């Protein structure tokens, strides 16, 4: 079996179908050994807070949707910014959304904690571009 590109990937999306499809793509292209899935950004933040100083428990890659009830992806990123420097150094965050709104793309790209904005659905080419 081929070694996965990353040990742990975190998916945050309120849409279970998108989580399922993204998980399948990640698995198919051997991108992540473990995939943590959260439909609630609040629960995902709690997980990150509890493990923010333990790099063995942290994901290396985080994919977060923008439009979710209770807390948007942008609100998630505001809270993420308050977490430890250990976490922020270890994790790479990508905003993944079906939105093609220029303002959403600009806001994501202006966030220093966001590596890139990607329109759904994640592709093999996109995964291959992640270092």
UniProtKB/TrEMBL annotation:
<feature type="modified residue" description="4-aspartylphosphate">
    <location>
        <position position="65"/>
    </location>
</feature>
<dbReference type="InterPro" id="IPR052893">
    <property type="entry name" value="TCS_response_regulator"/>
</dbReference>
<dbReference type="InterPro" id="IPR011006">
    <property type="entry name" value="CheY-like_superfamily"/>
</dbReference>
<keyword id="KW-0597">Phosphoprotein</keyword>
<dbReference type="GO" id="GO:0000160">
    <property type="term" value="P:phosphorelay signal transduction system"/>
</dbReference>
<feature type="domain" description="Response regulatory">
    <location>
        <begin position="8"/>
        <end position="131"/>
    </location>
</feature>
<protein>
    <submittedName>
        <fullName>Response regulator receiver domain-containing protein</fullName>
    </submittedName>
</protein>
<dbReference type="Pfam" id="PF00072">
    <property type="entry name" value="Response_reg"/>
</dbReference>
<dbReference type="InterPro" id="IPR001789">
    <property type="entry name" value="Sig_transdc_resp-reg_receiver"/>
</dbReference>
